[in-house]
Amino acid sequence: MTAPLSHFVLVPIWSWKSFKRRLTETIETHGAPRETNGLIIDVVTRTRLWPREQMDVARELACHFRDAEAAGQSPNEAVEAFGPPRLAAKLIRRAKRRQRGPVWKTWYASTRGLGIVTALAIIALAWHTSRVFLVQPTVAIDALAELNAAQPRIHAGARGYAPLLEAIASFRHPPAELIRSYGFEPGDRPENIRVHGEPVRWIDLEPGHPAWPLAAAHAATLTDTLDALGRVASSQGIGYVYRLGFDPAYVAAKVAAGGDPSQFQDPLPRSEWHNLIEGSVLSALLPHLSDVRELSLLLTLAADAESQAGRPDMAAQRLADAAAIGGHMLDSGTVIEQLVGLAIIRRSVDRCHRLLDASAERMDGETLMMLAHRFGGIGQAPGVRWRFDLTGERIAGVDTIQRAFSDDGDGGGHLTNEGIAFLHAIGSMNAESAVIDMHKAARLGRIVLFADRRSAQRFLERGYVLFDRANGRPLAELRDGDAASALHIFLEEAQNDPDGLLAGLMVPSLESAFERAVVVGGHRDALLVRLAAILFERANGWYPQQIDELAPRWLPRLPLDPWIDAPMRLRSDGATLTFYSVGGDLDDDGGTPPSVSSDAQQHVMCEHDRWPADGQGSPVDGDAVLWSGQIDGKPRSD
Q: Which of 199, 251, 323, 585 could form an S-S bond across to 619 if both were Cys, CB 3.0 to 4.6 Å?
């Protein structure tokens, strides 16, 4: 049965009454005058000593007043001579505590020290927390202006942005009447058509698909768009100006293409996430990226259509245009634009291999040379690894620091309330949520207490230095080399060091981007080797037996293996010509791919993250075959 509430209230009361009764009995037992009982109990109570010690004090005081009475002093005189009870209790308490043993004294000193440390910690936390709310960040650098100033200088007449807008304005998706005339239905979006009830993007279609004739027929009507893209490709660069709002010329082009003007109102309705990063480099709009991707797909689709129509030279021109536009994006100031450029170049390279497979014999030497020059002119030259330009990322880092920290005028400062919200936003966290796990809460506490602007800037710069060392290194080094090890150690430190917060948020994605740049550069180089081999055969009557036969006449330098610091391999057995990399096992297997799946026969096997592993996690034997094809086996004539 549960005890009544009165039990818990009355027990302490009756215990105190029992203790007081015992005190009274002790006092009377030791012969103290009755008039002094109240003073003795008052003093004993004020000492706040242990019960046993209080009994000792009561006995001592009772004996004191008994002796005073025996000496002829009246009880009232003895009480008056005793002095204030509070002071007496304080002195008695101090004396009794000195008599306690070493165990208690050690415990007391430790507890008192811990209390002092805790109080100081609370005061420090309160001070640092108040600083977060009392000071605001100072945005002193126009990071967007610096980003624009860092771009290559292109004369207004040589910029590709104006013809790009023309291409955007003239681009159209297939009309519903055309889609139905081929026996299909329009999709839920303008770019989609329904094939057997499933929506597909018409611009992604390839020869052999049931709806391919529709896509090829519509692409043939977009001559104005294709011509404008040709002018973009022939320009010196896109020349896009980074801005926070929509470019009015871009909006006009999208509206001319049938876009909804309400989608480009400025400012747009935005989520809390967008509002938090408003005004920073990270909030700069890049609306043209989706258009560039879509228009590059149109170029490769048109190339497939031209190839099927028996016009390989025109198909080659379309692919060269797509690759050149990808190269323009590769020369842009942000990593996201460079990644878009890599994707365009990779698709163009694959389609060029398909074109050569189908029509190399029908292509004249001038067209082959044009392809070699156009593809060779994007990215880095053969023999030089592809690298990312991190200028935009560095500027974004400086901008993020100035928006997250206060500025004391001497390079220092601390994290602000606005900065915490800003970092939550760029870390893809939900800034509206009040629920965070204990790990994030503990880390946030360390950041608020210890993060320093100067140290955070140094930490972030250290990260960019390490990434610069890894930028453009072979895949083997990105996997297990010293540069990779230093990066992994740095990223682990960034997770634990309060000053590493920005580095942990902004730079981890770069490592995979570096791998992609090396891989796409390797595929581009393999295409150049193939073109050089075809031109070599047409000039000499036989195919090269070794890759060094192609340099320097047909290739300015030998292309590098994506995996190691060595030239790419070429093997010829008289019937087959194979260009290959040593692959993930890092040894030359004579151009034999891993025999683990059908994917092993494809040149995507060059990717770091797709290389197959055995049961123990080690890379399987085999080479990354970038291209392999039949040749006529013409003998070398001496």
A: 585
Q: Distance between CA 193 and CA 176 in Å, rounded?
A: 9
Phi and psi angles of residue 625, each rounded to the nearest 5 degrees, phi first: -80, 115
Q: What is the DSSP letter of 160?
A: S
d(CA 620, CA 636): 35
Task: Give pTM, 2 decimals.
Answer: 0.77
For the residues of 565-610, what is the DSSP string, one character each?
A: SSBPEEEE-SSEEEEEE-TTTTS--TTPPPTTSGGGGSGGGGSGGG
Residue 578 and residue 556 in contact, taking contact as beta carbons nearer than 8 Å: no
pLDDT in tens, 169-225: 999 999 988 888 888 888 888 888 888 878 888 999 889 889 999 999 999 999 999
Q: CA 193 to CA 439: how far, in whole Å?
A: 48
Helical residues (DSSP H) of 285-334, grouped into ranges: 288-308, 312-330
Residue 584 in tokens: 């993930």
CB count, 10 Å around CB of 420? 18
Q: Pick the closest to residue 467 from 512, 432, 407 (CA basis).
A: 512
pLDDT in tens, 505-548: 655 566 677 888 888 888 898 899 999 999 998 998 888 888 88
CB 371 within 8 A of CB 356: no
What is the Cα–Cα distance from 590 to 571, expressed in whole angstroms? 7
Residues 260, 36: Cα–Cα separation, whole Å: 97
Q: Residue 221 belongs to what H/E stretch?
A: helix 212-221
Residue 571 and residue 580 in contact, taking contact as beta carbons nearer than 8 Å: yes
Interatomic CA distance for residues 146 and 28, integer angstroms: 92
Phi, psi (rounded to 5 degrees) for 159: -80, 145
Query: What's the CA angle centered on 116, arms 114 and 120, to 5 degrees?
Result: 115
